[in-house]
Write a structure and sequence with these properties.
single chain; alpha/beta; 2 domains; TIM Barrel; globular
C-alpha cells in the first residue's frame, strides 16, 4: 500500500487544555514513528477553541525534538498571515536543528475568521492574491537567490521541501506550474478533489525539487475494534463540524450516542458532503473503505487525520490504520 502520514491539529478536548494537547501530539508522533507513518504534519489555525496548533513552527520543533526519523512539517503554514522571509527563517532554523526531516506545506487561506485575520496584522485585501508571488519569494530565500536583496539566515541553501496545499483548482494549477508536490484537503473539502488531481497531473512541469507529479490526499479515519464503537467515536468530529459551520466553534466534545440520527436533514447532508472522504468502522470495514478510496483516486500518499476525543482511542485508530497498511 502507498505511504500513510498523520495530520494532527493538536485538538483541545473538552475538559482539557493546550498543554495536554501538546503532550498528546508528541505521544501520537512517537507512536506513529514506531508504526511506520511517513510524516507528521501540524496545521495553522487561529482563534479556534478546539485547535492548539496556532504557533505551528514552534510545535513542529517540539515534535521533531521528541522523535528521531519521521518527517515533521506544516500542513500547512497559511502564508498570507506571514512574511515569506520570516517563514524561511523559521523553517531554516527547524531544518538546521533536524536535518532532512522538515516539510513546509503552504496554504492560501488565513486559517481563521476575518476578525482574527485582521488581528494578525496582514493586509486582507491583497495578501491572498499575492500568494503565488509569496511562494516564489520563499523558494528564492531557500535557494539563496541573487534576486533577493536580503538572505534568510538560517534558510539559504537548505533543502526544505515545499508543498502546495489546496481545496480548489487554484492550488492545483500553482503546484503544477511550480513543479511542487500537491496536498489536497479532501478530508474536509472533497468537492473538487478529482478535478484538482487531474488538473495538477495534466499540467505538471518538472522542477529542481520534483521530476513528476506527487499527490497526497487528506482522509479521515475513525477506526475501532467494532463498527459500532467507531461510529460513536466519529460523533466528536461530526459535532465539531456542525458547531463550526453554525458559527459556534468549541473544544472537541465527547462522543454522543445517536448524534447523527438526531440531526436535521440539511445538517446530515452537510456532514455527508464534507466528510465523504472518510473510513469509519472496524479494521475490516476501514480496510475496505480505505482501499476503495485509493483505487478511485490513485494518490501517491494519504494524510490520515483522526479527530477522536479520547487519546487512547485515537491512538488505537492510527494503530489499526498502520496495521492495514502493513497487511499490504
Amino acid at each position: 500500500m502507498i505511504p500513510l502520514s498523520i495530520l494532527d491539529l493538536s485538538p483541545i478536548a473538552e475538559g482539557s487544555d493546550a498543554r495536554t494537547s501538546f503532550q498528546r501530539s508528541l505521544d501520537l508522533a512517537q507512536h506513529g514513528e514506531r508504526w511506520g507513518y511517513n510524516r507528521f504534519w501540524l496545521a495553522e489555525h487561529h482563534g479556534m477553541p478546539g485547535i492548539a496548533s496556532a504557533a505551528t513552527s514552534v510545535l513542529i520543533g517540539h515534535v521533531a525534538a521528541g522523535t528521531s526519523h519521521i518527517r515533521v512539517g506544516a500542513g500547512g503554514i497559511m502564508l498570507p498571515n506571514h512574511s515569506p522571509l520570516v517563514i524561511a527563517e523559521q523553517f531554516g532554523t527547524l531544518e538546521a536543528l533536524h536535518p532532512g526531516r522538515i516539510d513546509l506545506g503552504l496554504g492560501r487561506a488565513p486559517g481563521s475568521d476575518q476578525v482574527t485575520a485582521r488581528a494578525l496584522r496582514r493586509n486582507l485585501a491583497s495578501d491572498a492574491d499575492e500568494f503565488p508571488q509569496d511562494v516564489v519569494e520563499l523558494m528564492d530565500y531557500f535557494a539563496g537567490s541573487s534576486r533577493r536583496s536580503v538572505q534568510a539566515v538560517p534558510g539559504a541553501g537548505l533543502d526544505v521541501p515545499l508543498w502546495i496545499l489546496g481545496s480548489s483548482l487554484f492550488g492545483a494549477q500553482l503546484a503544477a506550474h511550480l513543479g511542487l508536490p500537491y496536498a489536497f484537503a479532501s478530508h474536509f473539502a472533497p468537492q473538487m478533489m478529482m478535478q484538482a488531481i487531474d488538473m495538477y497531473r495534466s499540467n505538471f512541469r518538472p522542477s529542481t525539487q520534483l521530476d513528476k507529479p506527487y499527490v497526497m490526499l487528506g482522509f479521515n479515519v475513525f477506526a475501532a475494534d467494532t463498527d459500532e464503537e467507531a461510529h460513536l467515536l466519529a460523533t466528536s468530529m461530526q459535532q465539531a463540524f456542525i458547531n463550526l459551520r453554525t458559527g459556534r466553534p468549541t473544544k472537541l466534545k465527547p462522543p454522543v450516542s445517536g448524534y447523527l440520527e438526531a440531526l436535521d436533514l440539511p445538517e446530515r447532508m452537510m456532514l455527508d458532503s464534507v466528510l465523504s472522504c472518510s473510513a469509519i468502522g472496524s479494521p475490516a470495514t476501514v480496510s475496505h473503505q480505505l482501499r476503495a478510496f485509493i483505487d478511485k483516486t490513485q494518490p501517491d500518499e494519504l494524510m490520515i487525520t483522526s479527530q477522536i476525543y479520547d487519546h487512547a482511542a485515537r491512538l488505537r485508530a492510527y494503530e489499526i490504520t498502520a496495521d492495514i497498511r502493513r497487511a499490504g
